[in-house]
Amino acid sequence: MASTSQPLSGKRACKKIFWAVFPHACFILSLVIYAFLGALMFSHIEGNRKVNLSEGYRKFLQNLWHISRNLSDNMTENEEIFKEKIHALLSAAERDWFVNPKDIWTFFGSLFFCCTVFTTVGYGNTYPVTRIGKYLCMLYALFGIPLMFLVLTDMGDILATVLSKSYNEFRKLQSKILASKLCSGSNCNKGDELHSRAQSKLVINEPLTLMEVLKSQPAVKRKPIKYRNAELFEMLIAREKEHTKPVRNKSIERWSSCPELARGKTMSRVMENFDKIGKELEKLDVPIVLMVLVIFVYISCAAAILPNWETRLDFQEAFYFCFITLTTIGFGDTQLEHPKFFLFFSLYIIIGMEIVFIAFKLGQDRLIGLYKKVISFCGEKKMPSKKVYPK
């Protein structure tokens, strides 16, 4: 029996873990599939578009030719005037005149664009040009942004649980260290002796049989002997049934005879996991200074790694770029030479956005509390004082 029960318990534990992890994996897998489908769509639409050279491009070439001809004919022309003309000409140029769409809208480039869309970062370096591409971009963002927020909320529960437990364990350790410093050796020994004496006294005074426990109850003592014996007998039977009740075996028999009950119970647990999304994040209460420190360390780690493949960035520029990205500001002033490498950092981006989101939520809660205190203080100041009239 022991050999058959152990595999059953192991399978049951594996199923329990699977259905507990299922909602989280479902959301993340849905986001990954959505990103890959968007990358295929935009790489096909924007990458295969035809580049039509407009009249503005021809005028640009003509003006560039005139400037270069004047410079070659008149070498004594002022250098500052030449720079101004070139600057005005280049500022009117469009990027599509010099870039092949297939070089921008590769699969990894399109995937990077999709990630900037549903994360609401929007660097602005890559954008759809065709009319159908713009319409599909709006439709893609309409469904992708809520899915991204759902993933952030779900991962926020996990991160909030880890942060709260870590913070609580740190507080417990801190209290133990303070207690050990404040407690002197003699006092602690006396306290331990008193505690051990109390425990031994409890063990000695504990009744040895169930009959003594039942007889010691005041409700039983006050009744006549015949009623008292009948009640004792009923209580003994009830106590025996509680100890011999095979709860797990009955549930196994009931599930094996009717598998629909097992599936229904499993599905109800899965639905409960879906309903609990966002609950742990609402209960999180850690100091805002701790969250700011976590954000600083988190961004610093990425800023130290990013210049290894983005050679144009130093630590400060990489720190600025990561902060602009995780806060979803996304100016687009810093361009990456290898965006496909940054895609492998996508998990870092999602977790970092979640950390920033938690910090913003904690800051919002603190601001609301501050506003409440200020309003209550101002209300108490403006309340008219009660006049006491003599009788």
What does this 3D model show about the protein?
This protein has 391 residues and is mainly α. Among the domains are: 54-98, no CATH class; 103-177 and 268-381, Orthogonal Bundle (Helix Hairpins). The chain has 17 helices and no strands. The protein has helices at 2-47, 55-73, 79-91, 101-104, 107-118, 131-182, 185-205, 210-215, 218-221, 225-243, 247-257, 259-275, 279-283, 288-305, 315-326, 339-343, 346-382. Helix 11 (247-257) packs across helix 12.
Which fold name corresponds to the CATH topology of the domain at 103-177 and 268-381? Helix Hairpins
The assigned CATH architecture of the domain at 103-177 and 268-381 is Orthogonal Bundle
H-E order? HHHHHHHHHHHHHHHHH
Terminal Cα span = 88 Å
The radius of gyration is: 36 Å
Structural class: mainly alpha
* E-strand count: 0
